[in-house]
Design goal:
The chain has 137 residues and is mostly beta strands. It is built from no helices and nine strands. It is globular and about 40 Å long. The termini are far apart.
Length: 137
């Protein structure tokens, strides 16, 4: 068995973009470092992006970690659901000092891609995420 195949959609105008990521589980298989956004596929491709906001809906007891890809991945944020409940998480990082969540681009092995790892996902759990990002200047 394998973790569910995610349905994704990405839009990018060269400065700002968004990615939608959705998966529904039928088994207890987990995602480990699943690529949510591969910045090398954006045109023009930025060196890195910063996160402006997350909107995440979690149905079930799933623990989701979003990370920037590097030799030691950099945690962006974690969202934890609860059994038999739907939870909506909104995170807006634009009031921060850099108008977004800025990655540590000097980290060893840094690629700038956004990854997702899950724990505790089980049959009938769902994750629906919308990530707004922009070029990190």
């Amino acid at each position: 068995m394998a973790a569910p195949t995610a349905v994704t959609a990405t839009s990018w105008n060269g400065t700002r973009g968004m990615v939608r990521w959705y998966a529904a589980w039928t088994t207890a298989d987990q995602h480990t470092d699943a690529v949510v956004l591969d910045i090398s596929t954006l045109s023009p491709a930025p060196n890195s992006v910063k996160i402006r906001s997350f909107d995440v809906i979690v149905n079930g007891d799933v623990d989701i970690a979003f990370e920037f890809d590097a030799t030691t991945d950099e945690l962006i944020d974690r969202f934890v659901g609860q059994s038999d409940q739907t939870n909506l998480f909104d995170r807006d990082y634009t009031d921060g000092p850099s108008n977004g969540f800025v990655p540590t681009t000097t980290a060893a092995g840094f690629t700038g891609d956004i990854l997702l790892t899950t724990l505790n996902a089980a049959n009938l759990d769902e994750v629906n995420a919308l990530i707004i990002f922009e070029r990190n200047s």
